[in-house]
Design a protein that fits this description.
globular, mainly alpha, 0% strand
């Protein structure tokens, strides 16, 4: 059985309920590209493990996201984001696609506006890889928000920032 077949079997569980432990265990060995976005959404608890609830949950997420303000009002913050984004897009040309680029800017804007945080470059460095595997802007926002929450829940902010910086550099998403 191929990795893809194993993941499809886990995600298509006969009883309609996805086994999170099994999914997490198999994910540590690598996630097939075709399923990476869906698996991340499940592992970050953005989507429910009960497959019968996923469609309704996605509709609710999209409806809520559509009401969020995604534009960043502060000109200086927009300039800083654009400058940092250019570095990211230069290193990762696939992120330059207009749809993906807009999703990154809108997701970041929604996060900054609705979580009362200042822009930091590491936010883009985390958002870039997620945007590579999650095509829906609403789902990208909720995955990004869940990832930030998950990182903040396991360690102090300073250590989280250092870890994010290290991981981004290690995997080629960070740097100057």
């Amino acid at each position: 059985m191929t990795d893809l077949e194993v993941f499809k079997e886990i995600l298509g569980a006969d009883d309609g309920y996805i086994d999170e432990v099994k999914l997490r265990d198999y994910s540590t060995l690598g996630i097939p590209n075709e399923l990476r976005g869906e698996v991340w959404l499940l592992l970050l608890n953005v989507l429910p493990l009960d497959r019968t609830q996923i469609a309704d949950h996605k509709k609710g997420m999209h409806k809520h996201y559509d009401r969020l303000v995604t534009a960043v009002d502060d000109a200086m913050t927009r300039t800083l984001i654009a400058r940092e984004a250019e570095k990211l897009f230069h290193r990762h040309p696939h992120l330059r696609e207009a749809v993906r680029r807009n999703a990154i800017f809108n997701t970041l804007g929604a996060y900054l506006n609705h979580h009362n945080v200042a822009f930091e470059p590491y936010l883009l460095q985390l958002l870039g890889p997620l945007s590579s595997v999650i095509s829906s802007e609403a789902e990208l926002y909720y995955a990004f928000r869940a990832l930030i929450r998950r990182l903040g829940a396991v360690m102090p902010l300073e250590m989280t920032l250092q870890l994010i910086f290290f991981v981004c550099l290690f995997f080629g998403w960070g740097g100057g």
